[in-house]
Each structure stands twice: as structure tokens, then as C-alpha cells.
Amino acid sequence: MKFGYFDDANKEYVITSPQTPYPWINYLGAQGFYSLISNTAGGYSFYMDARLRRITRYRYNNVPADMGGRYFYINDNGHIWNPGWSPVKTALDSYECRHGLGYTIIKGSSRGIAAEVTFFVPQNFNGEVQKVTIKNTGGESKKIKLFSFIEWCLWDANDDATNFQRNFNIGEVEVEDSAIFHKTEYRERRGHYAFYSVNAKLSGFDTDRESFLGMYNGFGEARAVKNGAAGNSVADGWSPVASHYLEIELAPGASKDLVFVLGYVENSAENSTGNSIGNFIEEKFAPDLTGGENIITSGNSRKNIINKKIAYNMIAQCDTAAKADALFGELKAYWAALLGQYSVDSPDEKLNRMVNIWNQYQCMVTFNMSRSASYFESGIGRGMGFRDSNQDILGFVHQIPARARERILDLAATMMEDGGAYHQYQPLTKMGNHELGSNFNDDPLWMILAVAAYMKETGDFAILDERVPYENDQSKADTLLDHMKRAFNHVCTKKGPRGLPLIGRADWNDCLNLNCFSASPGQSFQTTTSKDGKVAESVMIAAMFAFIGPEYAAMCRIKGDNSEADRADAEIAVMRKAAMEHGFDGEWFLRAYDDFGKKLGGKECAEGRIFIEPQGFAVLAGLGKETGADIKTLDSVDKYLNTKHGLVLHNPAFTRYYIEYGEISTYPPGYKENAGVFCHNNAWIICAEAAVGRGDKAFEYYSKIAPAYREEISDLHRTEPYVYAQMIAGKDAGRHGEAKNSWLTGTAAWNFVAVSQYILGIKPQYHGLQIDPSIPKNWNGFRLTRVFRGATYNITVKNPNHVSKGVIKLLVDGSEPPGSVIPSFPGGTHEIEVTLG
Ligand code: GLC
Ligand code: GLC
User: What's the sign of the alpha-carbon dihedral 610, 613, 619, 625?
Assistant: First the structure.
């Protein structure tokens, strides 16, 4: 069952029922000011850091679901409704939500009044703009009452949700003309404030939640709306809110546009996050008693009045509908240009919409948010993950390489001198997180992979010469190439009894904790370490090393250090040998050796006999290629892990707690890391199947988990049909096929890599672009446009013999190039013709 449809021409998903199986959300903003917005206008806004600079309040896991957001209430002569249905939930005559790239449009109508709200964060703007259009579609004149509503968060979202003994006393606001300012803690150490304004004269306002809603009412029963009049309340502690009250008279057929701005401003240097777009440092306070009578403040104080100069500027930037429309147009143009870097016209409509629109969009959002704020990540938990962010770069780097470069240098600066890394860092400070620490032994390799991807995309080899600190300490700076060397050495100097890499706390799978042995409830599986860690080995890291290690050797050669490259090759050869001798179990690769030296993920295991993680990298690295072990491995994956909803992480699922394996066995069978369909590592198998030339298998796996293909089963899948979820419940779960944890997942980047580089086969290399598709045999071919290092490649792939893979002819601007890699051009547009056979 579907709850909407894709509008590819407008690059939108159109939701036609407000009661989706789960709130279906979108993200606004890409530079500093961010909003999450659901299809009924639920959600919240924050600046840079979802925990430390939360602007509006949101209650997770609320009852009913998804309460709190930016709401517009219409009181049409006693008939009360919201354009987005919630929170009043009056049945609407029509409803539509269009989630687009960086914007959301919600339309609703009832009894001859139509309302449309466009929500977006303009480029270079620290605020959410809401353009509201109310139209009288009936035959009589009407006077309606419109109320806006948002609830302020007292900045630190964690404190806001826990520290009520203090927080109920500190809330402060100012109201000046049609703008409501939130200034809690501004008097003391904060230099930032937020505001909510509208470009029209108010008939009233409310800034105190209790006055607006009523003590015992929910958002759906707002007292002011029912009364048809605002209370003109001024918050004094408790819960400050912002609501504008407007009376609108409309002749038949007439409509009225309003522009609301929810903005964030930093006035003082000490509190600056260092990323205030267009915000310059100002005097913190206006003179006392400034502005005279039109300023209303908490406590009726005439002191500590905010200096509002920046807010006035922001309001002026969109104080007419025409100005708001122009900013909206700029945003659309920005996205069109970004997505134009890679666009395909294949015989498969769903693949086209994933590649051209939604997967790339999700890559951008994931790059920006890491794993911090979604409807499954509360924004107060995690900083930026080292391995997560490095992998996010793989899917994002072609969009804005300069931002990828900056991220790479930030990540590298959190590395330690031994080549390991802080597992997370805080986006506001860019410092490594000491509580979580290090010892996740896969981490260093992802850093090498990200740098390689950046260099291949851009040809910017000079990045390796950048001087980058270790542990954020400038006195310990060395070149990025040196960081690569230490990352590489971290793996080859930390080996166990069989010459395989020691696993440390976890290797990609955060829940495979072989040195943890936790027996106390509530203990963190990621930070508890009960064993010295000298025994448990990871076959996955060995396979990764075989796949990623050669990138380090290539970097050394690029920099002219051939002897170091030779040393690296020798280390890789040693690892490959160990991986085949001790890591291959006859038909597939083992997962690990545990602390007792016993095999995990092998034939002798009753549960967890075969795992997905090592198989893809092993095949991609060509391990066992000479003997056909690679194909055997992929056949085993198909045989034991394949389900109609994707590949499960391992099989059989763990049915009891294994203290020697850790968190993986804590999840009920079929969920999350315990044999769920973890979409992230499905992509590694897609890549591997494509690499060995089995394009039909690659496509089968791709289409099982790509959300556009699951749209028809939205009632089962539940999360958004336009973005990947981290996990789909596996075959052992009670709800096989149900997805959770949508949006922020490494799935976005890896599936973009899988489809763009392996299936469609457009692969950036250090010295040019390689084209080597691996497609379903029944395709006649496809066309693709790829912008690469400033030149545009118009690529036509022909498949006259209906094969999956194998380039028999390559023409570049009409002539055959010397090799299979097309050298990069200084610019211009180039016609590439590829024939498979
Ligand atoms: C989560 C984490 C990621 C980890 C994965 C598997 O997605 O963000 O770092 O690799 O789970 O445990
Ligand atoms: C839990 C999740 C896993 C995540 C980890 C770290 O273990 O199952 O997916 O990576 O927490 O936050």
C-alpha cells in the first residue's frame, strides 16, 4: 500500500495522506541552521549542534506520535483546523505534503479555505522561512483567524529535558512589533538568541505556553485558538513559546501571503560557534529602555534589551512574498546544479529516481548530520563518528569536494599518534570524545579509503602534504600522508596469534564485542573492556586491509616514495596469505576468532555460522580469485543470507546471550545487528557481485533494499519510501520487512557507491575516469552525465549482446583512448561511447 507518489520532474515525494505508517520527514538547511520537518509539520530546529543549540523543543517517543513542531491553526468562524492536519486533526477536504530537496510544502483545505505553507532554509541564512498562502475558494467573504505556534527549547536539549527545577524559572522573551524573541540566559553567558517574526501587523500574540494552550490541554486543543483571541501573554519562566495571532479578511477568490521567519542570531564572540553566516559581531545589548513602548519583555524589565540589528536584517531579507519566492528559487537552483554532477537515464525508472534525486540527497543530509538528529536519533547522544563520517564522504565527495576536504582534515586531526583514532568527535569543538576513546580497530582504514576517494574525485594530490595535528594538538602535526602511514601501520602492527588483525572494541560492527564480557545490565558494550585484547581477531579487518591497503601504496607511489609503497605491498601480501589460510572456511570467509581462539562465523558454529561483513571486501580484494573461492563465497551469501527483503547480517540469528560476543546477541533475533537486514553492508555484496560481473545479482540485491522499490509495501516497510533506513527486520524477526532508523545511515553513501561506481560503473581513479558497468543483461544500455574535475562527460553505454559486463569498445570524442581509464580533461563537454559485449 502506498501513501503518496514520486513526482520526479519536481524532485519531490508527494504524500497524500497525513496518517503515514510513521512520520515521514525531511531536512531543511545544509550550512548551519537545520530543521527536521515531518509530513504534518512536526519536528524541530537547531543551529550546528542538535544538543547544544536546540532552538525549538521536541519530545521524542511522545504520545500521540510526533507532537510539537511549527503549527498554523485556522479558526474559521469556530471551525478549527491545521493545513497539515495535526495537531487538531480535523479531517481535511484535501491534504498534500511535498517533500523536496531542502524544502517541504504542506497544503490543506477545509470548507472553502485553502492554505499552503512552504518551509525552507534559504542559502546563507540562519533561519527557517515559512511562506503561508491562505485563499478563499468559496463564494462568500470570510474573516478567518490565523495562529502560528512554536515552542522554544532552552538551548541545551539534554538539560532542557531533565533540569526542570532550574528551567522553569529562567525563560525570558521580548516582543517587538511582529517579532517574538527568545532570550533565555541571554542576560548572563549566552550571546545568541532566536526569533519568530511575520511580515504583518499582529492582532495579538502569546509567549507563555500555558496561556496559549491551557494547563491541561494538548497541542490539539489550544485555548487561544478556541477562544478566537490571543492572550498577549509574556513568558516569565515556565515554558516560553511564540505564537502570532492574525485576523485575515478574504473576498471570494482572494488570497493573502504571509512570510514567517524563525531565525537564530549570535551577537557575541565568546559564544560564537564560528560559523555564523553573514553574522558579524555586534554589541550584545541595546541601550536600556531602547525602542520605547513597543518592546514588551519578561518581568517587564527595561534592562538587558537585546541588540536586534542582525534579526532586523534577516527579517528584511524576506519581508515580502516576492523576496521569499526569490530565495526559494535560489535554493532550487542550487540543488539542481548539485545533482547535475551525476545523472543517469537507464531503463529502470526507480533506479533513476534513486540515483538522480533521493540517494544523492540523502548522502548530503547524512554528511551534514552524521548520526546526530533524526526521528530515531535524539540529537543528544552521538557526536560525529570517525568511521561513519569517513564512509559518508564516499557518497558525498562528488557533490562539494571542498567540504569533503575540510571534513577529512578535521577527522584526521582526531587521530592518535599510534594511527588509531577517537571513535567520535564533537562537531561544535571538533575535538575527540574522551569518554568513548579509541581502539575500534577498523577506524584507521576508513580514513585511508576516504582520502583515496577524495583524491580520485578531485586529482588534488596535494592534500597529502597538508600538515594535520594528531589528537588536535598542533605541536604534534605531521603531513596527511604520515597519517595514512600510521593508519596503515596500526593494522599491521596489531595482529593476533594467526597474523590476523586484532579486533579491539569492535570493527565496523559496533555490537560484535569480543573483548567485553559484560555481565552487568546497563554497561556500555562499546567501552567496557574486560580482556587484554591480544587474542580476538577480525577477518573483516583483514579483508578490508586487503581491499583498502593498496590505496595507501598508491598514495606513496603518487608521492614518489616507491620503497615505502613496496613495503606496503609486502605487508598486504602477508595479510592476504593469513586471510586465506586462517580466514577462509571452505565456502565463505569466517567472521572472527573470539577471545578463546574459537571461530565465529564458521561451519562449526550452531548460531552465527556465516556473516555478511567480511565476504564483500574479501571478494573486492580478489582474495581467493585464483581458486574460485570468491564466487563460492558469493554463492554462500546468496544461499544462507538472502531473503525477500534483503541480505541478513548473519545466519542463524543468536537466540541467547553470548557473553563472549557481546551486544550482537542482546538484540532479539532478526533485529539490528542480530541478523537484521543491515542495509549498509548489503551494498558491499552489491559491489562484489558487480565486480565479478554478475550484474543481475547485483541489481537484485540493490532493488530489494532501495526504498523506491519498496514504496508499494509502505504499510509493511513503514519508514519513508524515498530514503534508506539503517535496518529492515530480518527473517527471524516478528516483523520481517519492517524498517527502522531511516535517514542517517552509512547505507546512503555505500549504496550510492554501489550503484554509481559498480552497477553503472563510473569509477573515478587517481588518473582519470574508468567506465566499467555491470548491469542487468536485459538492459539495452543507458545514458549518463557525469561532471568530473570540471569537465562534463556525456556517456552512452550500449549493450547490443545483452551481457552484464565487459567493455569491448570505448570511444572518447570519437577516438579510442590508449587505455581503459579516460584521462581527465581541463574542462568542456565530452562524448563517451561505451559498447559492452
Ligand atoms: C551504526 C553505527 C556504525 C556501525 C553500524 C554497525 O550504524 O553508526 O558506526 O558501523 O551501526 O554496528
Ligand atoms: C548500538 C547500535 C549500533 C550502533 C551503536 C553505537 O549498539 O545497535 O547500531 O552502532 O549502538 O551507537
Answer: negative
For residue 595 and ligand 1, the question of a CB distance below 6 A is answered with no
Q: Which residue out of 384, 386, 388 has the highest number of ligand 1 atoms within 8 Å of its CB and is therefore the one to mutate?
A: 388
Q: Which ligand is nearest to the CA of 667?
A: 2
Does the global pTM surpass 0.90? yes
Q: How far is the CA of 188 from the centre of ligand 1 (A)?
A: 40
Is there an atom of ligand 2 within 6 Å of 404 CB?
no
Distance from the first to the final alpha carbon of the chain: 40
Q: Which helix (H) or strand (E) holds 477?
A: strand 473-479
Instruction: Output the pLDDT for position 189.
Output: 87
CA 664 to ligand 2 centroid distance, Å: 10
Per the rule left: phi > 0, alpha: psi between -120 and 50, beta: everything else, 237 is left
CA dist 294 and 311 (Å) reads 16
pLDDT at 270: 52
Protein residue with least CA distance to atom 5, ligand 2: 510
Nearest 5°: the CA angle 449, 673, 649 is: 75
**485: enclosing H helix or E strand:** helix 480-492
Could you give the CA distance from residue 618 to residue 580 in angstroms, rounded to a whole number?
Answer: 10
Q: Is 613 in the pocket of ligand 2 (CB under 6 A)?
A: no
- Residue 208 beta carbon below 6 angstroms from any ligand 2 atom: no
Q: What pLDDT sits at residue 278?
A: 45
Look at the chain and count its residues: 837
Which ligand 2 atom is the nearest neighbour of the CA of 525? Answer: 7
Q: Which of 792, 803, 694, 760 is nearest to 351 (CA)?
A: 760
For residues 613 and 455, what is the distance between their CA atoms, to the nearest angstrom?
A: 26
**How confident is the model at residue 280, as a pLDDT?**
45
3-state secondary structure 124-149: CCCEEEEEEEEEECCCCCEEEEEEEE
| 3-state helix, strand and coil shares in percent for the chain, rounded to the nearest 5 | 30, 30, 40
Residues of the chain with pLDDT under 50: 278-280
